[in-house]
Amino acid sequence: MNNTYYGKLIFELSKEGRRGYSLPKNELDNYKLDTLPAQLMRSEAPALPEVDELTVVRHYTNMSNNNFGVDTGFYPLGSCTMKYNPKINEDMAAHRDFTCLHPLQDVDTVQGALEVYYNLQESLAELSGLKEFTLNPYAGAHGELTGLMVMRSYHASRGDNKRTKVIVPDSAHGTNPASAAVCGLNVVVVKSRPDGTVDVDDLRPLLDDTIAGMMMTNPNTLGIFEHNIAEIAKLVHDCGGLMYYDGANLNPMLGVCRPGDLGFDIMHINLHKTFSTPHGGGGPGSGPVGVREGLEQFLPSPRVVRHEEEEGHHYTVENGDQSLGFISGFLGNFAVVMRAYTYILTLGHEHVKNVGPLATLNANYVKESLKDCYELPLTGVCKHEFVFDGLKDKSTGVTTLDVAKRLLDYGFHAPTIYFPLLFHEALMIEPTENESKETLDAFIEVMRKIAQEAKEQPDMVKTAPHCTPVRRLDDTQAALKPIITYRELATQE
Amino acid sequence: MNFKFFPHTEDDIRSMLNTCGEQKLEDLYKDIPEELVFKREYALPDAMSEVEVRRFFDDLGSYNVPLTCFVGAGCYDHYSPAVVNDMVRRSEFLTSYTPYQAEISQGTLQYIFEYQSMMAELTGMEVSNASMYDGCTATAEAMMMAVANAKKRNKVLISDTVNPIVIRVVETYAKFHGVEVVRIAAENGVTSRADFEAKIAQDDVAGVIVATPNFYGILEDYTGWADLCHEHKALLIMNCVASALGVIKTPAEWGADVAVGDGQSLGIPMNFGGPYVGFLCTSKKLIRKMPGRIVGATTDADGKRTFVLTLQAREQHIRREKATSNICSNESLMALYVTIYMSLMGKQGLREVNEMGYSGAHYLAEQLCATGKFEMAYPDKPFLNEFAIKTTLDVDDVQSQCLCAGIQAGLKIADDTLLMCVTEARSKAEIDALVDQVKQLIEEEN
Amino acid sequence: MSKIIEGLCYSESHEYVKVEGEFGYIGITDYAQHELGNVVYVDMPEVDDEVTAGEEFGAVESVKAASDLVSPVSGTVVEVNEALEDEPGLINKDAFENWIIKVQLSDKSELEGLMDAAAYKAMIGE
Is B68-77+346-445 assigned to CATH 3.40.50.10490? Predict the structure, then answer.
């Protein structure tokens, strides 16, 4: 990363008459666009920049140099599983035999693409212990929504329309209640016990015939395995509800547990977390949804179906009559599917099983190495991530935000901060299986140094970062008078 | 354990376990009840080297047939300059997360700000969010936005001339969200004004969704529609083909409240359906009802102009079940495709792309009609680069004849109708090749 | 320590009502504004809207948080504090001076269910 701030906008590099493109000559220019009725055409061309090609290349290159990615350095962002994004994934996703396909072209001409799609569905089913998957959802939150639609469709198919509530633990990701609301379900919150797991005694009285199901992540957002999961699943099933697994924290389970075996009926997987597809600055992701046997008919259309034939096999794209409907234009983020399947092929059964244990080892190692300087509210083994409640010594006034900002000065991305909401100064750390002991040791050393700095030079920590391209930003000003386009910015400056 | 993505040596593992006070890796899972642990080997293929992975996809790729594409219907075969593909692979963009730590994410924040600015220019609207999953879900989100805005109404009208692929997603979201979707009839390829007037007059409509160009490629005249919507306290939502907005009348000029659609036509490869990018633009007045992330300008502690995620209090991680939407990821990298594409093309490039699509489509339509076996489905309606055409030939025969020559001859939308699309990526020779196949078929049948 | 004014009625969700005849001025307490931080937006109802005791009528947003406004009383909105549209930060300057809505009370007996200054002070532990 370059610590000199670039900061220009492409609009500011524009000069009238410059060109950044070349197109073939229009051989049919006797057919003129101008013959369309003027009242159907825009009165003025859009004010887009006019720049030459090299200017565009340098602009985005310089801009990228003010960005930090997994390739730049350690990125221990809790609950986001910032693992290495293998380069071979990118090459395969850019394979021209796949990128050139139109989603509506004849099904016989896309058999290779459908096989990749189908194979990934099957691989995810094996890895999760569920029956069938759809890869149509575009992201984790979209998967949650789709999964809840499956849940509602299941109850509706039995004529059971009383079930309008879904139970969500207080430690859940914010998307869980938001997805429930979009799906037309009411959220009931179940409390956590002091050890961070769901309070079964608090859960029991919530269970009745208005409960559609319960959403959980396991391990939960505190990195703790919900050891009562079998009992919880039984209670929810006994009252007629379904269990939904939020797959955001699936990584430590690879090689250890399968959600289907824990009693979950529906789940989503974040391919951009567990299956190494790049986060891309916030998307595109992919949120496949899997279901146990008996629910597959409710999955969204279209579905990829494999037919065994005498001279081989054949794939078709079908719409089911009991399906919940359509949640995407076509078959989801196919290029992300290509990457995730490449990852699974690269690891194979021999190495996939080591992902969970090594991610868990890394997390526990960091936790144990820092617990004397940072407040560890929950002791014992964690899974892929854990949460500190700020610095152990609170007398300095240095907050979690300050620690996070100071980390940036040392060339590390900050952990997730102020989530989960159960602790005031939450600092949620998730080192993935790809990080070496040397990297973790360097991070540990810096975290200890910051704890020391907090005592000796608290003001310096409170005004961090000092070495990044820009200093702390005024986000109050941004929210008070939102300026979100160049046109508006230009009138202000 | 020895594997290229795992840096752990036996010694590392031993010493790290020692720090944790544990003996072996399994001890880290001692809190998991024994009966829940997965014990067998996964039934997955053996690990492949890169050589084998490449061979695997080369082999599967040979079962795909690249075609000369004359289909649009929501996904358009436009040319994307080499710069776009090169820049989006820069790992500082590719391997970063949502820009929560603004001090080390100015790259992402800046390009999203540019994206928002360009989408606002293109649609003519005041504000844009940081992007959504695709055009279908963006339209569904706009529907929910209209319902939330209207507070006590839960009915939304959608024109039958909107792409059916969009309609079916909107209807799915509506079914679960508790919104009643009512169709406005189509008449001669355009939305029925009379049906719209009758339905909006009931004063129970939260929003009205129409398309430009519509599913049949037609440019509808929406004069007076926005006024009528506003008179009856409904929002006008316009689903648009992004690239076409370079030349056609904008949603803002029609008076729309929300402009949505797919940005795929702005430099994103067809990719067998995704990833693409949905856009959602609106007026300043409705900014806090808008779903999705938003980047705003501000200053840092030294007074430098910088960019940051803003208006986050609308979002799921703060508002939970009361958020404007459950959307969390946007399609950031796809927004970067679109941003770089528009930077390169500029207003002139976008115009030329549309001119070439217009010329090619009108030439193709004319050539097909000249065979005597085809006629325009909606002959008096203006279109840009996509059109519906009827034939007295067997549509399946036309398509399979062309397929044998490596041509995807449009999309069958009725027993006797094809929806055809021409972009700047189609040469005159390719169009002629399609027409030649049709002529051959006619000869064979005679 | 947060400011608390004698003579107002307080709710558990940190709203206050200042009663003047048949009208009540509703806002958030000084304690609440302090907890929220810099207020950047106030989502307010419109004049003539009905509010119901115990139900939401809007929200207050800061950069990193949002809090629903729960009406402590029932009635009809007769005025909204338009100054907050341009300058929501007024709530941070003086939360009691800068009320959010003025309501024509429909049931004054509801006030009896609210806390007085001493009880509210005890609730927030000050």
Answer: no
